[in-house]
Design brief:
By secondary structure, this protein is an alpha/beta fold. The protein has one domain: NAD(P)-binding Rossmann-like Domain (Rossmann fold). About 45% of the residues lie in helices and about 15% in strands. The chain has 9 helices and 7 strands, in the order βαβαβαβαβααβαααβ. Helix 1 links the parallel strand 1 and strand 2. Helix 1 packs across helix 9 and helix 4 packs parallel to helix 6. The protein is globular and about 50 Å long. It starts with 8 loop residues before the first strand and ends in a 5-residue tail after the last strand. The structure holds NADP nicotinamide-adenine-dinucleotide phosphate. NADP nicotinamide-adenine-dinucleotide phosphate binds next to helix 1 and strand 2.
Length: about 250
C-alpha cells in the first residue's frame, strides 16, 4: 500500500527509546523528514543514525524536557526553526507516576501533565498552522488502560482524559483537514521496558499477566504500534478522525 508519506515533515516527541524509537523507524522507512525530541542526547544521536540508515530523508534531533520547559514556547521555537509539520506524534507518557489513589492534586496533576497536558499545550501552537494549510495529522500515544481502567488509577485516568480530548477536539477539527487521533497500545516489551526485567528473570507474573490480559498471549513490539501510527499519519486514514484505536493483542 502506498502511504504517500515521502518527504512529509514529521515531529515525534518522546523519540529516543521504546515505542517512540519504533515510531521513528516506521516513519524513516517511509522516507520522511524527521524532527525527533527527547531528553537524552546520546540516545537521540543513536536514533538519528538508525533513522537515516532506515531511509529517512533527513533527521534532526532536539534535546528538551517537555515536563520542565514552557511547552508553548518550545512548540513555537520548533515551528520557527522547522516551519510547519505535516505530522505530529506525541509519545511522551507512562504509568511510572504515583500509584497512590488517595494522592492529592499535585500527583494527579503530574500524571495528567505527563500523559496529556504537556502535549495538549504544544497542540495549541502546532495545530493552528495545520488548520491554515488545511492538512495535518496529530497522533497521541494513549493506552488501552484508558478504556479498561485497570492498573494505576492516576495513569488510567490521565489516559482516559487524553482519549476524551482526542474525541471531542478531533470532532471539532475534522472539517478542517486536520486529523486528531490516538493509538492505544496494550502491553509492549522492548529492552529496558517495564516488562523486560520480569521476562528476563522468568518471573511468574509475566505468564499470569499474559494469560489473563493479552489474549494473543505475548507482548506487543514497538514496531506493531508504529505500524498503526504510520498508517494513521497517511492519507489512507482520511475517514478515521477523532478516534482512539486499540493495538493491544486483544487486551481483556
Ligand atoms: N510500554 C507499554 O507497554 C505501553 C503500553 C501502553 C501505552 N504506552 C504508552 O506509550 C508511550 C511510550 O511508552 P514507552 O513504554 O515506550 O515509554 P519509555 O520507554 O519511557 O519512552 C518514553 C520516551 O519519551 C521520552 N521522554 C520521557 N519523558 C520525557 C520528557 N519529559 N520530555 C521529553 N521526552 C521525554 C523518553 O526519552 P528520554 O528519557 O531520553 O527523555 C523516551 O524516548 C507512553 O505514552 C505510554 O504511556 C506504553
Amino acid at each position: 500500500m502506498e502511504l504517500n508519506l515521502k518527504k512529509k515533515k514529521v515531529l515525534i516527541i518522546g523519540a529516543s527509546k521504546g515505542i517512540g524509537r519504533g515510531i521513528v523507524n516506521g516513519f524513516a522507512k517511509e522516507n520522511t523528514n524527521l524532527v525527533i525530541v527527547a531528553r537524552t542526547e546520546d540516545l537521540l544521536q543513536e536514533v538519528q543514525k538508525e533513522a537515516l540508515e532506515n531511509g529517512a530523508e533527513t533527521c534532526a534531533y532536539v534535546v528538551e524536557d517537555i515536563m520542565a520547559c514552557d511547552t508553548k514556547l518550545f512548540a513555537s521555537k520548533l515551528l520557527a526553526q522547522y516551519r510547519n509539520f505535516d505530522v505530529v506524534v506525541h509519545n511522551v507518557g507512562g504509568s511510572l507516576v504515583s500509584r497512590n489513589h488517595l494522592a492529592g492534586a499535585e500527583d494527579w496533576e503530574y500524571a495528567l501533565k505527563f500523559n496529556a497536558l504537556a502535549s495538549i499545550d504544544m497542540n495549541s501552537v502546532l495545530i493552528p498552522p495545520m488548520i491554515e494549510k488545511g492538512y495535518g495529522r496529530v497522533i497521541h500515544i494513549s493506552s488501552i488502560s484508558a478504556v479498561m481502567l485497570r492498573g494505576n488509577p492516576l495513569y488510567a485516568s490521565a489516559k482516559a482524559f487524553l482519549n476524551a480530548y482526542v474525541t471531542t477536539v478531533g470532532r471539532q477539527l475534522a472539517p478542517t483537514g486536520v486529523l486528531l487521533c490516538s493509538v492505544m497500545p496494550g502491553a509492549v516489551a522492548f529492552p529496558g521496558s517495564y516488562w523486560d526485567k520480569f521476562v528476563k528473570e522468568g518471573h511468574p507474573r509475566v505468564d499470569d499477566f499474559l494469560r489473563h490480559h493479552q489474549a494473543v498471549n505475548r507482548f506487543g513490539t514497538p514496531e506493531e504500534i508504529a505500524n498503526a501510527v504510520v498508517f494513521m499519519a497517511s492519507d489512507k486514514s482520511s475517514f478515521m478522525q477523532a478516534t482512539n484505536i486499540p493495538v493491544d493483542g486483544a487486551n481483556m
